[in-house]
Amino acid sequence: MASRTSTPRTFRLGAVPGATPGKWIDTWKQRMPRVPLELVPIEFVDQRTAIDELDAALVRRPLDDADDLHVIPLYDEVPVVVASAESHLMAADQLTADDLVGEVLITPLDDVLGPLSLPTVAPKFSPLATTADAIATAASGVGIVVVPMSLARLHQRKDVDYRPLLAGPTSPVVLAWRRDRTTEDVETFIGIVRGRTANSSR
Questions:
Q1: 173-190: per-residue pLDDT in tens?
Q2: DSSP class per residue in 5-71
Q3: 95 secondary structure, DSSP code
Q4: 66-122 pLDDT, tens per residue?
């Protein structure tokens, strides 16, 4: 059985780029005024290690070594194609794989979607480190980037735009925490993300 410890002075919640915990944090502040919530930004590539240092975290699948974790699915993010605002692709309201034939697909090292089965071609330049770098490069018109919609919004620029990719791979966002650290505060946060009221039984 998971251990229950006393309420920590601060509830440390991790969040990968693009995760949107704002409404849950607002509810926490109303429901738990004596326990400050610290939002800790974490990177996708470091998310598994980061969870060990946090009370809980909003992370993305795939999640390595999940046997020692509790994981609650929250939502799936729609993938979008990011390209130069002047790209012919932006003339459509939404895109399919067939629309991307021959396009240069820029995949950054911090990519969260994994291999994509698209009729695209690889760039002739070295992989870029970050999604921000990839989108900045796409802005110049040399290629496209496929990311969850929240990351396209996070890195929005005036010289790029994005369109939903139909039947593309979604990016599942989950709440994860260590099984041996199921505290009263963690259970309270679980109740919040599941929409329980303050008086609801667990």
A1: 999 999 999 999 999 999
A2: -PPPSSEEEEE-TT---HHHHHHHHHH-TTS-EEEEE--GGGHHHHHTTSSEEEEES--TTGGGEEE
A3: B
A4: 789 999 999 999 999 999 999 999 999 999 999 999 999 999 999 999 999 999 999
What are the φ/ψ torsions at residue 118 (nearest 5 degrees)? -125, 150
Task: Check pLDDT > 60 for residue 63.
Answer: yes
Q: In the sheet where 171-178 sits, what is the strand order?
A: 37-41, 11-15, 56-60, 171-178, 69-77
131 and 151 in contact (C-beta within 8 Å)? yes
Contacts of 115 (CB under 8 A, 6+ apart): none
CB 28 within 8 A of CB 192: yes
Tokens matching residue 81: 């194609």
Contact predicate 184/35, CB 8 Å: no
**In whole angstroms, how far apart are CA 6 and each of 1, 91, 181?**
16, 56, 11
